[in-house]
Amino acid sequence: TTQPASFDVASTAGVDLDHFWMPFTNNRYFKDNPRLLVAAEGMYYTSSDGRRLLDSTSGLWCVNAGHGRAAIGAAVAEAVGTLDFAPTFQLGHPLPFRLASELAKIMPAGLDRVFFTNSGSESADTALKMALAYHHARGDQTRFRLIGRQRGYHGTNFGGLSVGGLGGNRRRFVSQVWGVDHLSHTQGQAVRFQRGLQPGNGALADELEDLIALHGAETIAAVIVEPMAGSAGVLVPPQGYLQRLREITRKHGILLIFDEVITGFGRLGAATGAELFGVTPDIITLAKGLTNATVPMGAVVASREVHDAIVEGSPEGIEFYHGYTYSGHPVAAAAGLATLQIYREEGLFARAGAMAAKWEEAVHSLADCPHVVDIRNLGLVAGIELAPRDGTPGARATEVFQKAFDRGLLIRATGDIIALSPPLIISGDQIDEIVGTLRTLLKDLA
Ligand code: PLP
User: Fold this and answer.
1) What are phi and psi of 336, to 5 degrees?
2) Which of 320, 346, 372 is the last residue of a domain?
3) Which residues pair with 44 in a beta bridge?
4) Per-residue model confidence as pLDDT tens digits over 338-356
5) What is the distance of C-alpha 333 from the center of its chain?
6) Record's Gene3D superfamilies (predicted)?
7) Segments forming the whole domain that contains residue 362
8) Predicted ipTM > 0.85
């Protein structure tokens, strides 16, 4: 008989670093200077050398309810023990239906049809394909073009990377989706140390009219943007910008997709960025906080209109030739249900909203620290931009990351921007601790 496998999750004994080719990582540096996390609870990680690390990044913007939530673990264990896997192609099981219904309750009115994926990248590609399928089903077959935004991030699959606007992610990959164009990003050079939304009247979004004039509305299927760009280093939109994008897309029959992989699930103090801004897109993409990151899962929430056009408008048979083996996986769906229950019972989205003023005050108090050239914030997110060191862009923020780690604080550095996005359970004292540690580090930094 086979013995059950046993892993000592927290032990590094016998761990060989050679074989795991790490994603988005300086592998050579890491393997010479490994930083291993071995346990997590509440607001803290534990590292393999016994350090306790205050998690100011919710892992990777994903552990919104804090680490080690027992109710999620219990739901996962029950699902694994009851129904390890069941297909959702031409079959089903109750959990993804239940989760879709729960999700629909917290989405903007009218967005209540849910397609499950396994990640944010898959959600982005699913949403783009859904937009193409929508127009196709309506007989609008010339609408093939997809509009993204510079410095946008929609994951790393070919669709998302094509509409994305981070140069390093795109340049080396020649084969991209055809017919893509990009809006300008929303970071105004003149606007520094702005609290919350950038000033504006929506005029920046009028660029979309220029792209429409250039390409013809009849060739454009969808516009995809993050309500607040996270991965590019926290770019907060100007007032009125998303509203204006909505007006223009509606006027021209173009679908509007909000990539809410980061902004979903309370990050901005509401269930979605759409809710916060009062702008309802046609499609919302989700992942990360959906399961509190316990099990990989993403979702694409479509309006009834988009869904019905495809499902009712297609000939008898499979309506949307798309899906993943693990779409609606029982274990992930169980984690999602338990996670949504925690968000609801603990009122975490509203809590994040209530903490946002304290957060804003605290992060902007770093404005007079050496090297700081800009600070941006929205909800429980902040971007602290440092002046790059001559000749070595990114080196300064990387050094802050390393020194913060050594002092028991986990932050994220993208380029020379420090990005902060703590779990929504953060206390006022923990906010002060994050800011205090950063102030000390920045003061001594070359
Ligand atoms: N979309 C946005 C807005 C993201 O921030 C991310 C990840 O950070 C993704 C998509 C990709 O998600 P994943 O890494 O789960 O594929």
Assistant:
1) -65, -45
2) 346
3) 41, 54
4) 999 999 999 999 999 999 9
5) 19
6) Aspartate Aminotransferase, domain 1 (3.90.1150.10), Type I PLP-dependent aspartate aminotransferase-like (Major domain) (3.40.640.10)
7) 27-64+347-443
8) yes
